[in-house]
Specification:
This protein has helices at 10-14, 37-49, 59-79, 93-104, 123-129, 152-158, 181-190, 210-213, 237-242, 267-272, 274-286, 293-320, 351-359, 373-378, 398-412; strands spanning 25-26, 87-90, 113-117, 137-141, 163-169, 194-198, 217-221, 231-235, 325-327, 341-346, 363-364, 366-368, 387-391. The strands form three sheets. A seven-stranded mixed sheet has the order 2-8-7-6-5-3-4, with helices on both faces. It is an alpha/beta fold.
């Protein structure tokens, strides 16, 4: 494959996202990215040409069914699943986590231990705590308050013969830290347990590879990855087959993934998701990459990452230089160490006041706990209204970051 260019063709990228033409500065991308025209076009096309029930013998039903299967195949390729029926799709990460843990519930025995972190979005904590009603014991792997990292030695102390599952985030939606999930998987598997990874904050910035992750289950939402309000849960096929069916009584435990999709998938949103992989391949090709679809997608994400790193460091450098500003997470954009989700607080300033000032200038950022409430409480930031969060995507520009910094400087003012 030829060397990739140093710069991302932003004009080409931004033309794929119609909302960017409005001139609004979208920097709340970790809350929800902008949607590709390719995705919206597919959703519209499905609704207007394929809106029939699946499973019938007539031609239109067969054709619609083939589109939905093509969507599942595309998502399987996007995440590098070994088998396409390992891909379970649903409305959101939170709902898929609930369904998954409900499928695990009959196999939980009193005293079984589940380890969760206090850095995660509540979607990857609350679903597990529901298993306490079956006698599960929830143990917390807590972030180190000095390093703001999850210490592997601490995990090793928590793992034991009763550990059944460990659940963690691939990248924190507040700290931005990329966690070493493959190393965690080795420790977890050595203890005879399984690992579930929430990649909601990771998948918009790196090409997902569920096999390389070492995880047994992996989940994220497409609406953070330039797609519709929809989500995917991948699981190892042997593990999924061993779970009971959550569907109608006549849908047996060998019917993957339907047994874990009660009510079935949303057909049009599934079909729309093909546009995500199409876009990534197109961006790889447009920047000179060649090879398989996975290689093209990897090339695209490498370009995205370099561009995002430059933008993130531009903002972090400003924040490091401001008196009274505390960056919540790694203060430097070291390649591979963090995603461009940047949180901070300002001494003596409620986080809301900073964000409200930016609202006046058509710059979308956010304040709060971002459903990682346990982390905000551990850091003692609830009284300040949580953090200010700026979350960058690859379609953002240096000019947008400079504009953000200019108005942040006004909002921060002379901090005490």
């Amino acid at each position: 494959m030829s060397p990739l260019p140093n710069e991302l063709n932003l004009a080409l990228v931004r033309a794929e996202f119609p909302a960017l033409a409005s001139g609004y500065t979208f920097l709340d991308n970790a809350g929800g990215s902008q949607v590709l025209a390719r995705v919206a076009d597919r959703v519209r096309d499905y609704l207007l040409t394929s809106s029939v029930q699946l499973g019938a013998s007539y031609a239109e039903s067969v054709a619609a069914g083939e589109r939905v299967i093509a969507a599942r195949r595309s998502v399987a390729q996007l995440v590098n699943a070994a088998h396409e029926d390992e891909v379970v799709m649903g409305s959101a990460t939170t709902s898929l986590m609930f369904l998954f843990t409900q499928a695990l519930l009959p196999g939980i025995r009193p005293g079984d231990e589940i380890i969760v972190t206090n850095t995660d979005h509540e979607a990857n904590i609350g679903a597990w705590t529901r298993l306490e009603k079956a006698g599960a014991v929830i143990r917390f792997w807590n972030v180190d308050l000095d390093s703001l990292a999850l210490d592997l030695d601490e995990l090793q102390k928590l793992l034991g013969p009763r550990t059944r599952w460990v659940a963690m985030t691939h990248a924190s939606n507040i700290l931005g830290t990329v966690n070493p999930v493959a190393k965690v998987a080795e420790l977890v598997h050595a203890a005879g347990a399984r690992l579930l990874v929430d990649a909601v904050a990771y998948a918009p910035h790196r090409l997902v590879d569920v096999q390389a992750s070492g995880a047994d289950a992996y989940v994220f939402s497409f609406y953070k990855v330039f797609g519709p309000h929809f989500a995917v849960l991948w699981g190892r096929r042997d593990m999924l087959l061993a779970l009971p069916s959550l569907n109608h009584y006549f849908i047996g435990p060998d019917v993957l993934p339907y047994k874990l999709q009660p009510g079935n998938v949303n057909y049009e949103l599934s079909y729309g998701c093909i546009g995500i992989a199409d876009y990534l391949c197109a961006m790889g090709t447009a920047h000179g990459a060649t090879g398989s679809p996975r290689q093209l997608m990897q090339a695209a994400f490498e370009l995205f990452e370099r561009h995002e790193d430059r933008l993130a460091e531009r903002l972090l450098a400003y924040l490091r230089g401001r008196a009274g500003v505390r960056i919540i997470g790694l203060p430097v954009q070291t390649p591979g160490a963090r995603v461009p989700t940047i949180s901070f607080t300002v001494k003596g300033r409620p986080s809301e006041s900073i964000v409200r000032h930016l609202d006046r200038f058509d710059i979308g950022i956010r304040f709060g706990d971002f459903y990682a409430k346990r982390l905000i409480e551990a850091l003692g930031l609830q009284g300040q209204g949580g953090v200010v969060r700026v979350s960058i995507a690859h379609y953002n520009t240096a000019e947008e970051i400079d504009r953000l910094v200019r108005h942040l400087d006004e909002a921060i003012g002379a901090a005490p």
